[in-house]
Model the fold of this input.
Amino acid sequence: MRYRITPRAQRDLIAHFAFIARDKIAPADEFLKVAEQSFARLAEMPGMGRAWESANRRLAGVRVYPMPAPYRSYLIFYRIAADVLEVLAVLHGSRDIGAALEELL
Done:
């Protein structure tokens, strides 16, 4: 299976990169590398993570997967659409996740 990063998820990645890079560029580069590896891993095994539970029907089928250490605070939200894994958002766990996901709709 292949994966596709939505424009929203691309903006998330850029924002996280910029935040991390304020201190040092190497960890920010590593963050992007780990994110790409995580997307590829999810495309190989799309059932990883867990279903995101929400009363909002428009979020049906959304799954969440934490990135590996040292970036476990970052959560990848994705869904399977036909033969493509769609990366919807990459959010830091300290955010109001419910509100951020509502913005996806």
User: Anything to note?
Assistant: The longest strand covers residues 84-92. The chain has one domain: 2-102. Strands lie at 2-5, 50-51, 63-66, 74-81, 84-92.
